[in-house]
Amino acid sequence: MSQTGVIKDQKLLLLQKKKSKRNLIEILMGSIVKPLLGDNLTTIGSNIAGLLFIIETLRRYFPGQLKVTIQQLLVNAIHRLPFFKKCADKTLAYFSPYAQIRFREIEEYRYNYAYSAIKTYLGAQVNPQVKNLKGSQMRGRESLDFKRDDDKVEDEYEGAKMWWEDLKSTDGVKMCRLTFHRSNWEVVTGAYLSYVVEEGKSIEEKKKTVRIFMNNPSSNWKLQMKHLWSSIDFEHPATFDTMAMDPKKKDEIMSDLLEFREGEEYYKKIGKAWKRGYLLHGPPGTGKSTMIAAMANLMSYSIYDLELTSIENNWELKKLLLATSSKSIIVIEDIDCSLDLTGERGVKEDHQSNAEIKREKKKENSVTLSGLLNFIDGIWSAYGQKRILVFTTNHLGKLDQALIRRGRMDMHIELSYCRFEAFKILAKNYLNLDSHPLFGEIETLLEETNMTPADVAENLMVKYGESGVDGSLKGLVRALEQMKLNQHSNEQQKEIEYLTKQ
Ligand SMILES: Nc1ncnc2c1ncn2[C@@H]1O[C@H](COP(=O)(O)OP(=O)(O)OP(=O)(O)O)[C@@H](O)[C@H]1O
Ligand SMILES: [Mg+2]
């Protein structure tokens, strides 16, 4: 056979192969795309462009969701063909007249403020044309609050149309996507998005609802696609007015908090991260948790209640802390029970045994004090702005000095047993009393005993028989006398034990 004969045969074979592939494509594509397919690959690009022209025309005539559905149908049909999926992707991106921007709630482990502002803005797009709404009523508000409750929202700005869509990412992070015509690029990336974010922020500011966040166990982050934190509206009624404590100390704490809130310039000037740490310590029932609620209400900051026992290592701790939002109070209650505070920051000996080294390695894989401190000192300084960190403990003495040294915990607040000044606040709150003949006796008994504000409050809430306020106060006097007796006999018991040991 001549050389030209061989080439002819090969061309024929190639043509047959192409034809059989094309037949396969045509079967798969069905009747929508079939007529658009040309004789060779070079025409595919222009055919897709033709297809997009049809999509674009359909877009103009069919509003909102239908448009997106038609486009998705066609795009899906093309994507089902593995043969030229890659080619189609590139061509589509090149020819598509639409661009998209995604906003994830957590971006590179950090909270994305634009996301929450956008969600607030979209939720506020309420008008009589909207079909899905959700209603709620917050504590202290008389009117109902309506929010738009649609996964897809169409918006318009200076004549340009935009489509927002809620999406779920594969890693479980909430996100939304904006689709817009490329011809509106300047408007959207410039004025429109700034407008949306600013508007969202100002709505958030006006409505300012304080929320309380709880961390989900890390096992849920991946498996159930849950988020790092779950939250509900924070409706604790405690305020500094209702806090029973020494009024001077109360004023000091309140001024410290308010100064912090307005301290942007100051923190910039001194070159320190805009954060503040409070260590609340005292026996159970003295108002540590109540004070955190009062702080949140005073500052209008949300609370992140960090449960260390449900996370596994420092990496998870970092991830959680970086996902907190600004203007928030991060709380670790009973810090002495949540962390192994012993020894881990101790000076490393040169002659450590293998067992010791292994033990240390194991500790590296769990939540440690140094992990927490690294965050407070390290990343925090670069990232954590306008955050308050609160640790609580019943046992100040058990805490590692490294944790409580000044600079980390800026203010140590002792909450203690109820004395007369604190009692007067409770009497005002619970019984609406400024004075009473029994106040003198109560003052003396409070000095002689160690009753917590929680126990005093309990007694004031009980109304004894018909005697109302008098009955409550008499009940309190009896409880205090009983406590005094118990304390006295305990002391005697201890003295006897001591003497018998001698
Ligand atoms: N100083 C206080 N002022 C006003 N109410 C108080 C105060 N201390 C306690 N109470 C009342 O007692 C209840 C228990 O107080 P709280 O939970 O704040 O104590 P705590 O110090 O956090 O205790 P624990 O160490 O057990 O966590 C509160 O609901 C509150 O009503
Ligand atoms: Mg508490």
Automatic annotation (TrEMBL):
Cofactor(s) listed in the protein's UniProt record: Mg(2+)
Q: Which UniProt keywords apply?
A: ATP-binding, Hydrolase, Magnesium, Nucleotide-binding
**Single Gene Ontology BP annotation:** response to stress
Enumerate the InterPro entries for this protein.
AAA+_ATPase (IPR003593), AAA_N_dom (IPR025753), At3g28540-like_C (IPR058017), ATPase_AAA_core (IPR003959), ATPase_AAA_CS (IPR003960), Mitochondrial_chaperone_BCS1 (IPR050747), P-loop_NTPase (IPR027417)
Top-level taxon of the source organism:
Eukaryota
**Stored Pfam families:** AAA, AAA_assoc, AAA_lid_At3g28540
Q: Does the keyword Transport apply?
A: no
CDD domains xref list: RecA-like_BCS1
Q: Which SUPFAM superfamilies match?
A: P-loop containing nucleoside triphosphate hydrolases
A single GO molecular function term of this UniProt record: ATP hydrolysis activity
Catalytic reactions of this protein: ATP + H2O = ADP + phosphate + H(+)
According to the record, the segments passing through the membrane are: none
Q: Where is the AAA+ ATPase domain?
A: 274-419
Record family assignment: Belongs to the AAA ATPase family. BCS1 subfamily.
Q: Which PANTHER family match?
A: BCS1 AAA-TYPE ATPASE (PTHR23070)
Q: What is this protein called?
A: AAA-ATPase At3g28570, mitochondrial
Instruction: State the organism named in the record.
Output: Raphanus sativus
